[in-house]
Write a structure and sequence with these properties.
The complex is a heterodimer of chains A (98) and B (732). With 98 residues, chain A is α+β, with helices and mostly antiparallel strands. Chain A has five helices and three strands. Chain B has a three-stranded mixed sheet with strand order 1-2-6. The longest helix of chain B is centred in the N-terminal third of the chain and has 30 residues, at 189-218. Classes of the chains: A alpha+beta (98), B mainly alpha (732). Chain A: Keywords: Nucleus.
């Protein structure tokens, strides 16, 4: 994965996820952050910190990003969600406009 | 949710981060406000999108949406006010540039602000029905800047002035214009229309009204049209370069109205350069331009068409009534054809082959060709001329072209039966004298007439061709059975079916003895093979080739008419003959005899006879003798009779009468046909239907139709209704 194709997402606990930019763009908000015409800090450094999202949730979210890309390609599978995470995941989804 | 298995699990009560700090909202807003300032000051690189988004998110989440929204409006307004001031301060030409730059800045800032406030845009704004951030930004820009008292008028004037400058030939910054116009459009089409388009159209109308007035005073029609076209194209180009495409129709309408519609009649009738002059001088380009421009305005094309039609009718009328023209029928028809060609090429080159124009052309021709009652005769004479000599050495295709043109003129004729009469006469002469250049051309024309007017029209003409063919066979049969005739004079007989040919009253002359013997032999041969027929000799239509030896032994072969032959044969026995003697011996009708003597004694180069006294005309007391000194460059000498090519006045009357006579049964037949199917019909309808039925042949005269109806009533074909005298009933 080349540097310019990747983004770094950092969880509340400081855990870093490096994923494809294409996957991150599934979130409307992350997409805006990375492509905003003004040069925000995130746009320049290609990393976004989420002080309100825990590592577990962020990991799940990253998985979702990739699943969604696949899904967009027409491959229909189910995305497993553990019930314990449901609520927090919903909150995060709302936040990320995903 | 994918996991449907029953499993007990617990969800922890969601712990809202309790807002402890009552000043939380103010604090958060301060951060955002600061960020907005920084964005406007191009200082965003230090800001964290995520942080700002999170703050805005939390504010909305914690029911501070309204505070956030109002804060945004206030902050943005104050920024825009500053921009407004700095733009106002811009001097002269830099005003637009400044405005454009600020507009770009504002747009960029607006997008960033919308991005960080996206959560508000998504949730809060729809729920309270407020204006979304982007639209809000545009509205504020419109109200604070574009509609500010100092900028609104200035902006409008600057734009209009730039357009004006471009119209006078200056080069302006079109890119800048496009950006500004696009800004107005982005602010809503009503802003574009109110703040720019409307005044633009008004100013343009005024401008073109003045300019067209100026042009029309000093330019001729062609130049004016060129200028108008140029202006029109400029405006269209302007629209594509920097105006909204919807404006194209509006601005072209303005130009069309001011420059064309308002001056249309004056242009068309302009002295020395108007449409009539263009038509006369074949100015295809100018006319094409006029067509294309006038097409854009209501009634434009009909105006052109009316002028063209009236001009065409006028010149056509002059042409067909000009006594000079009537002297030479061939020339006359050629003129008509030239005129038609000219207008055909005008319509195809300049008027886009417009159907309406073609119709106008056709109706005009129909109108003036029928003004001259001799047109049918002349057209037939034209064909006659072409088929006698005009088509020699012309390729088949060209022949077709000429014939097609003739057919076109024929189509314009109302009295087609008159044409048929003449055509039959001329065809008969051609066939009998063997003068036809091309049999194919003759037949081709017959086929054309047939497709145009139907079988009936040409059946007799075709009969003539058949007669020629059978006569040829008969002659072969005759000579095959009379082998002993090989040495004497040769007789060629054409047997003509009565009715198919235009026969003249059978005046026969006395043939020379050598010939009468031969004729009698043929008669007995023919009647022997065809019983129940009658042969009568039409000596007035024949020709003869005779060999003659003159005084000093010069030998010539003379091609003469039968009458001339009879006269010349007399001189085998006598040297001198008086007029009376000739008349007595031959019994040729006076008029024909005079004509035939004239052609042999008075035409230079063909004067095989001499007469005393020498004069141009033949008198009853004249004496004739063989011209011993006759010489000619050619061995074969053709002596034409002095034929009146064109019919003389009494002949014309006669033909006319015959035509009228022929029409009577046709009208009667039409009436009977109509009444047979309708049983009962009133007078006006009969007239209308009869006229319609006979249209392809001639224009029936209503009084004549009435006479025919009366005649049919007398003969018990029809009766008047006993109650309504206007109704006729058919009696089977």
């Amino acid at each position: 994965m080349r540097k310019e194709d990747s983004v770094k997402l950092i969880s509340a606990e400081g855990f870093e996820f490096v994923i494809h930019k294409e996957a991150a763009m599934v979130s409307q908000i992350i997409s805006n952050m990375l492509t905003s015409p003004g040069s925000f800090a995130e746009t320049e450094h290609r990393e976004v910190t989420f002080p309100e999202i825990s590592t577990t949730i962020l990991e799940k979210i990253c998985q979702y990003f990739y699943w969604s890309l696949q899904y967009a390609n027409g491959k229909e599978t189910e995305f497993p969600i553990e019930p314990e995470l449901t609520l927090e995941l919903i909150m995060a989804a709302n936040y990320l406009d995903t | 949710m994918s996991n449907q298995k029953k499993r007990n699990f617990q969800i922890d009560a969601f712990k809202h981060r309790v807002v402890v700090d009552p000043k939380y909202a103010d604090k958060t807003w301060k951060i955002l406000e600061h960020a907005i300032h920084e964005i406007y000051n191009h200082n965003a690189s230090g800001l964290s999108f995520e942080e700002l988004y999170r703050n805005a998110y939390n504010m909305v989440l914690h029911k501070f949406g309204e505070k956030l929204y109002n804060g945004l409006v206030a902050t943005m307004t104050s920024h825009l006010k500053e921009i407004s001031k700095s733009t106002e301060a811009a001097q002269g030409d830099s005003f637009l540039e400044e405005l454009n730059r600020k507009w770009n800045d504002h747009n960029k800032a607006l997008q960033m602000i919308r991005d960080i406030l996206m959560y508000m845009d998504r949730t809060y704004i729809p729920s309270v029905h407020k204006t979304p951030v982007h639209e809000l930004g545009l509205n504020l820009w419109r109200d604070t800047i574009i509609h500010s008292s100092k900028i609104q008028a200035r902006l409008q004037n600057t734009l209009l002035e730039l357009v004006q400058r471009e119209r006078t030939g200056e080069v302006i910054d079109r890119g800048l214009m496009r950006n500004i116009v696009k800004m107005l459009m982005d602010l809503g089409s009503s802003v574009y229309q109110e703040d720019f388009e409307k005044p633009f159209l008004e100013v343009s109308a005024e401008f073109y009204s003045c300019e067209s007035q100026k042009f029309i005073e000093c330019c001729d029609c062609g130049d004016y049209l060129k200028k108008a076209e140029k202006r029109l194209n400029e405006e269209i180009e302007r629209v594509t370069h920097y105006l909204d495409s919807k404006s194209e129709v509006k601005i072209t309408n303005v130009v069309e109205k001011e420059m064309i519609a308002n001056h249309m009649l004056r242009l068309v009738h302009m002295e020395n350069s108007g449409l009539v002059n263009m038509l006369l001088d074949d100015k295809f380009e100018d006319m094409g331009r006029m067509y294309n421009l006038f097409r854009r305005v209501p009634d434009g094309l009909s105006t052109i068409r009316e002028v063209m039609t009236s001009h065409l009718r006028e010149t056509g009328k002059q042409l067909v009534t000009d006594p000079e023209r009537l002297k030479d029928p061939v020339e006359f028809v050629q003129c008509l054809l030239d005129e038609k060609d000219k207008y055909d090429s005008i319509i195809s080159n300049a008027f886009n082959n417009d159907k309406a124009f073609q119709n106008a052309l056709n109706s005009s021709f129909e109108y003036f060709i029928n003004l001259n009652a001799r047109s049918p005769e002349f057209i037939s004479l034209f064909v006659d001329d072409k088929l006698r000599k005009g088509l020699k050495g012309v390729s088949e295709e060209d022949v077709e072209i000429i014939l097609d043109k003739v057919m076109m003129l024929f189509r314009y004729l109302q009295e087609k039966d008159v044409f048929e009469k003449y055509y039959k006469q001329h065809l008969a002469k051609r066939l009998l004298s063997g003068k036809t250049v091309s049999d194919d051309a003759e037949r081709s024309l017959i086929v054309k007439l047939k497709t145009e007017c139907g079988y009936q029209f040409t059946s007799k003409l075709e009969g003539m061709f058949t007669d020629m063919k059978t006569s040829h066979d008969t002659m072969q049969g005759f000579y095959a059975s009379h082998l002993e005739l090989g040495d004497g004079p040769t007789l060629v007989v054409q047997v003509l079916t009565t009715g198919s040919w235009p026969t003249q009253p059978g005046v026969t002359c006395n043939l020379p003895a050598e010939m009468s013997v031969l004729c009698e032999k043929f008669r007995s041969y023919y009647l022997g093979t065809h019983t129940g027929r009658r042969l009568s000799w039409q000596t007035n239509m024949g020709t003869a080739d005779i060999k003659a030896t003159f005084g000093k032994g010069q030998k010539h072969e003379l091609n003469v008419s039968t009458y001339q032959m009879c006269v010349l044969m007399l001189f085998n026995n006598d040297d001198r003959l008086g007029y009376k003697e000739i008349e007595q011996a031959t019994e040729i009708p006076t008029a024909d005899l005079k004509r035939c003597l004239q052609s042999m004694a008075c035409v230079k180069g063909k004067n095989v006879l001499r007469k005393e006294p020498m004069s141009k005309d033949i008198g009853e007391e004249d004496t004739f003798f063989v011209n011993d000194k006759f010489t000619s460059k050619f061995y074969k000498v053709k002596i034409g009779t002095v034929v009146a090519q064109k019919e003389s006045e009494p002949e014309k009357q006669e033909t006319r009468q015959r035509v009228e006579e022929d029409r009577k049964p046709q009208i009667e037949a039409a009436i009977v046909r109509i009444m047979k199917s309708r049983r009962v019909l009133d007078h006006n309808n009969i007239i209308a239907e009869v006229t319609k039925q006979l249209q392809s042949r001639f224009l029936a005269n209503p009084t004549e139709i009435k006479k025919r109806i009366e005649s049919l009533i007398e003969r018990d074909f029809l009766e008047r209704d006993s109650v309504d005298r206007k109704l006729y009933r058919y009696l089977a």
